[in-house]
Design brief:
By secondary structure, the chain is of the alpha/beta class. It has helices at 2-19, 35-40, 58-70, 88-94, 121-126, 137-142, 147-159, 172-176, 180-192, 219-236, 239-244, 258-262, 279-286, 288-293; strands spanning 46-51, 77-82, 100-104, 131-134, 163-168, 201-205, 246-250, 269-272. It is globular and about 45 Å long. The structure holds glyceraldehyde-3-phosphate (G3H). Pathway: Carbohydrate biosynthesis.
Length: 294
């Protein structure tokens, strides 16, 4: 009977993939560990963030919102879309709040004041934007954001009542020179030095070499680092934070590879860049956890 149920689920999953025009992926890796289902328990939902970065016109954003609103999101997955600041009010008003939340891609480290061009956490809260992405590697690289500055912004956002997607990740050079764990430790330690309450934080592990390159980390590579990060939290923060914290993966996640990544026990979701701009693809990714369970 159980075999029949599983076969039925696989058929449903294949249908869902086909309906989104996605080639079917093999099922072998889906036999991987499902222990994270237990660990996340009823309280933790799989988390899928879409970081639209500096993309979108009035017409493309309208189309994307329509495509997303037409799709379905499983109840065990929290989906958050992060448009540009300019598009945020429109997306916030038009995206189906029953399925999607919205996020900013950054906020300022101080409150309201003379900070020309910056957007405060208070202003985001006032506009009912409850999430913010902080520490993205593009901001670290292009805007010189240091570990300390990112940590200060995390503290400010959390103190203001926002939830934070805190990004960390190593460059290829750091990975290849054996400094990956040292880099990740320093990025996390800076944040841990400033905040006590991790209940409104999602940590996004985004290896810089995988971002926008099409070179996705293998499920095993992602799992290795996520397991390391979970142990880091157990050793340096607390076992309960280590257990409940969602650690998501970002870097060339797409509709084809998301399901295999989602089978890994310490991968609690994704932060998606390029593929989040394609409605049908992003909807497949939003359903990855459900598909991985099938
Ligand atoms: O925030 C998202 C990450 O930078 C991943 O971007 P990507 O999916 O285009 O590689």
């Amino acid at each position: 009977m159980r075999v029949q149920v599983n076969a039925f689920r696989r058929t449903l999953r294949a249908r869902a993939l086909r309906s989104h025009g996605v080639p079917q992926v093999g099922t072998a890796s889906q036999q991987g560990s499902r222990r994270h289902l237990t660990r996340m328990g009823c309280d933790g939902k799989f988390f899928v963030g879409g970081n639209w970065k500096s993309n979108g016109t009035k017409s493309s954003v309208t189309k994307l919102v329509e495509e997303l609103n037409a799709g379905s999101v499983p109840s065990n997955t929290e989906v958050v879309c992060a448009p540009t600041f300019v598009h945020l009010p429109y997306v916030s008003e038009t995206l189906d709040a029953g399925k999607f939340q919205v996020s900013a891609q950054n906020c300022w480290v101080e409150g309201y004041g003379a900070y020309t061009g910056e957007i405060t956490a208070e202003a985001l809260g006032d506009m009912s934007v409850n999430w913010v992405i902080l520490g993205h590697s593009e901001r670290r690289a292009l805007n010189g954001e240091t570990n300390e500055f990112v940590a200060d912004k995390c503290k400010k956002a959390l103190d203001t009542g926002l939830s934070v997607i805190a990004c960390i990740g190593e460059t290829l050079e750091q990975r290849e020179s054996g400094k990956m764990f040292e880099v990740l430790d320093a990025q996390l330690a800076a944040i841990a030095g400033k905040i006590d309450d991790w209940s409104s934080v999602v940590v996004a592990y985004e290896p810089v070499w995988a971002i926008g390159t099409g070179v996705v980390a293998t499920p095993d590579q992602a799992q290795e680092v996520h397991a390391y990060l979970r142990k880091w939290f157990a050793d340096n923060v607390s076992p309960s934070v280590s257990k409940s914290l969602r650690v998501i993966y970002g870097g060339s996640v797409n509709a084809e590879n998301c399901s295999d990544l989602a089978t890994k026990e310490d991968v609690d979701g994704f932060l998606v860049g390029g593929a989040s701009l394609k409605g049908p693809d992003f909807l497949v990714i939003a359903n990855a956890f459900e598909m991985a369970r099938a």
